[in-house]
Specification:
With 141 residues, the protein is mostly helical. 63% of the residues lie in helices and 5% in strands. It has helices at 8-15, 19-28, 46-60, 65-76, 82-117, 129-132, 137-140; strands at residues 6-7, 35-36, 42-44. Strand 2 (35-36) and strand 3 (42-44) form a beta hairpin. The protein is elongated.
Length: 141
Amino acid sequence: MTTEQLTIGEVAARAGMTPDALRYYDRLGLLPPATRTPAGYRLYDRAALDRLTFIRKARALGLRLDEVQEILRVADQGTPPCEHVRETLSARLAEVDARIAELESLRATLRRALARSRRLPLASSCICGIIESETTEREER
């Protein structure tokens, strides 16, 4: 029985990504080497499609490609990567929480600058008094 072989366009469409993304993942080593036709075209099997679907879902969870690559490396060694995935998700959640805190701080700064800008006169002696009157964290230190 022969295994179904899919062209790059077919496997990309089934995996919900572009052929360029598939080629990129291939270059990064996220996929086992594809078989090639005599003309040099890549052919992928069902396992490659399953792996691409996994990569797409991991990316949708916010995992970086290096993190996905490490998870796949653990799985390829025959070890269930679920504990590693749990640790990776926990670390990513901490990074997202920190980034949200940074963005909330930026939002507060922008709101203060906008409110202050409404009280400032238009100045022709500088580029823009709204920005130039702002005190940055470095200046405060």
